[in-house]
UniProtKB/TrEMBL annotation:
<feature type="transmembrane region" description="Helical">
    <location>
        <begin position="35"/>
        <end position="53"/>
    </location>
</feature>
<keyword id="KW-1133">Transmembrane helix</keyword>
<feature type="transmembrane region" description="Helical">
    <location>
        <begin position="371"/>
        <end position="393"/>
    </location>
</feature>
<feature type="transmembrane region" description="Helical">
    <location>
        <begin position="579"/>
        <end position="598"/>
    </location>
</feature>
<feature type="transmembrane region" description="Helical">
    <location>
        <begin position="604"/>
        <end position="621"/>
    </location>
</feature>
<feature type="transmembrane region" description="Helical">
    <location>
        <begin position="12"/>
        <end position="29"/>
    </location>
</feature>
<feature type="transmembrane region" description="Helical">
    <location>
        <begin position="246"/>
        <end position="264"/>
    </location>
</feature>
<dbReference type="InterPro" id="IPR046062">
    <property type="entry name" value="DUF6020"/>
</dbReference>
<feature type="transmembrane region" description="Helical">
    <location>
        <begin position="65"/>
        <end position="85"/>
    </location>
</feature>
<feature type="transmembrane region" description="Helical">
    <location>
        <begin position="97"/>
        <end position="120"/>
    </location>
</feature>
<feature type="transmembrane region" description="Helical">
    <location>
        <begin position="276"/>
        <end position="296"/>
    </location>
</feature>
<feature type="transmembrane region" description="Helical">
    <location>
        <begin position="176"/>
        <end position="196"/>
    </location>
</feature>
<keyword id="KW-0812">Transmembrane</keyword>
<keyword id="KW-0472">Membrane</keyword>
<dbReference type="Pfam" id="PF19484">
    <property type="entry name" value="DUF6020"/>
</dbReference>
<feature type="transmembrane region" description="Helical">
    <location>
        <begin position="349"/>
        <end position="364"/>
    </location>
</feature>
<feature type="transmembrane region" description="Helical">
    <location>
        <begin position="549"/>
        <end position="572"/>
    </location>
</feature>
Amino acid sequence: MSKKQITQNSIAVLAAFLAVCGINFLYQIRGTSTMLSNSVTAMLMFGAFTYVGAQFLKKAVNARLLVYGAAGGMMFAAFAAWGFSLNYTDTIWNPQVFPAFAALSPFFTICVGAGLRVLAGVSEKKASVKTGTEGIQQKNGAMEAEETDGLTGVHMSEADGPIAYFIAYSFPVREFYWFCFAVLFLSWIPVLLASWPGIFSYDCGWQLAAVADHAWTAHHPILHTAMLWLTRQLGRALTGSNQAGAFIYSLLQMVILSALYADVCLYLRQKKAPKWLWVGALVFLGFHPVNSLMALCATKDSIFTAVFAVFVVQLLRMAEYPEIFFASGRRQILFCVNVFFLYAFRNNGLHTFLFCIPFLLWAFRRYWKKMLLLCVICLGLYGIYTGPVYSALGIQPGDAREMCSVLMQSAARVYNLDYQGLTQEQKEGILAMIDEEGLNTYMSRFADPVKAYFHGSEFAENPTPFLKTWVSVGMTHKKMYIDSFLAGTFGYWYPGNAIEETDKGKDYFEYDCKEFRADVDVTMESKIPVLSEFYRKIGNEASFQKAPVIAATFNLGFYTWLWLFTILVLLYARQWKQLIVMAPFTGYFLTNLLGPVVKMRYHYPFIACMPLMLYLLWRVYKEKKSQAETDF
């Protein structure tokens, strides 16, 4: 064995040892310091980690791969250590957190580096060849677009499986789209029967009551509220009951989601994605319990997510063939319509689009005038929608408290945990904006109790006094402010057990029809009680946690890590234009971090768009492999 091999193996052994120590540090956070270190599991983990490290170090590790691997490794190690500590101690300042982070970072760096090299390990020489051929690829863009749009040469054989082979060659574009539509719609029929007439939880009662009381506000998207109200009125006109209206709404939402998700599946097939991906996307969107439940849940997040997914597909198409997009008036109109529905079904859809604008202008700088015009048109539609349309319907603006969750939660945390450390002036400044009763109901992971006692209208009129107090308190309680922010968001970025325990069980998804008041309530009358109980346990008891590996597909942090890893891969592969696809995810994620609570439905766009993220990773790998074969 050469000295180089000895050095590589020594590094692998050290990284594996540190990783096991890091996991043990995490156990110490919850007071079980010897639970791992004295176990056979520790030896097995050490052996597996050593093997992974040794395999990675067999090949040369250049500086660029090391930098990207270390950046991702340190980020994921920090998320793991912080999230674990917050989950058990509600703070990141536990003395074991930094040792855990330091010990886990080398192995996480190896894992991220290995992933980058496998998926996008293009050498510097190959990268330069790729750059040189970029112009030729762009010239042939229109021809390739026509080819993929026509679904020619899908590279399928009977060896890929009779079902996939049959689908690939039996359905042209239009028929394949309707095939996907039918599969998706029919896959949700059992869920409709199990939850008959649908899942009317979360904010449905509030939305319907607001319209009934002529107190309609922009707190919830008015288009979604109108859909709930109109279908309810139609049902009452036909049968005189709320149940019929709920059933009509459920069918309408199923149709909308089937139509939009079918476009996602169609896109993957048009781009010649491997059969496991486009067939898997159809199965995932149709049959995974999260998608099944959201398809029948009458919350704004369901339709918004499907619109979001189609928006991502539009960006992919734009990035691949910009000349075709900007030469087509129909495609540009569809873009504007897509953006309109993006903010019409969720208030933070506007902020998501605003975040995307600079990236759109940069990515399509060759067509910056047309791109800028499209952005102006989209913002103009928003202005008309929230201006004259709102005024005509008598829509009142939403309460400013919705934007202040981070502010009020951090102030409430300090008020409860270090009351004596506040000056009298600071106490009065906090109490002037938040009632003491609300401050006493503080919960670190849930802002709604405090939010209910926040004087939103007064803050909107004159925010300066409270902001001054908030800054003043923060200057002397920096750690508490950081803890407050992370405690309210770690469920999004920590792939562990961050599901809130409530009196009703584990709150993953509200599988019920909430009782609000008689004139708007819907009663769940299951036609398949056994299946209904299955979904109830998933939503209200998080029963999926009993199934290893499968449980990860329900975890919000898993999808966040996939998104971040996808960004790293695109950066490492120098896929600059494809990075535009990550902009809406980033903008939406940042708005979620300012929200009052971590909920699966808020993070649902990341879940439903998993097939698209996997497609991006596959595409980078395919291009790397193709380039390697060309160079050879």
